[in-house]
Amino acid sequence: DIQMTQSPSSLSASVGDRVTITCRASQSISSYLNWYQQKPGKAPNLLIYAASSLQSGVPSRFSGSGSGTDFTLTISSLQPEDFATYYCQQSYHTPWTFGQGTKVEIK
Amino acid sequence: QVHLQQWGAGLLKPSETLSLTCAVYGGSFSRYSWSWIRQPPGKGLEWIGEINHSGSTNYNPNPSLKSRVTISVDTSKNQFSLKLSSVTAADTAVYYCARVYSHDYVWGSYRTFDYWGQGSLVTVSS
Asked: What's the gap in Å between the CA of A48 and the closest CA on chain B?
């Protein structure tokens, strides 16, 4: 299986901050990388696919970059509704696997 | 608009069989594949498997699921189902159904989970 490792596991930030979350794959996955946001008690919501493509309806403050094994999700200006847990997921090879999550908390 | 509605038993005893169904409203059921994903309390996400409209399946081969999974489809009702046999406490989780959407380009197909059910908490306890 392809292991996905996110860092940090959690972070504290303020509204308006620029936030960056990193995801590393255990082998090259080209750009087959998705990002999801999950709020407590809710299903995950797709933000980014193919490493850098913004899912329809997702605010433009979210962006993704990277290829190969190293990827980042950036929130350019953190908003109150962005406090949540973020997961990366590889779609390069089954079994599809997720990172362990990064919880973004209010400072 | 696409909507996934799931249901099934929420409390099981060890060794019983978990059974969940997901109904799809809106969109074209036959154009997509459909997945099950689970999340133990306070933990991350684990892909269980998927099925397409013709019944072809792809399961997670990992030991935590080790051949206990069956996913089936009923295209006449736009529904798909999950069965997980011989459950233990380790199978306690929120189970989600999801649509697999593929963004197809000349250079590759990028698969995503773009619509999800509301989640079903399944607790295994004696």
From this structure: 9
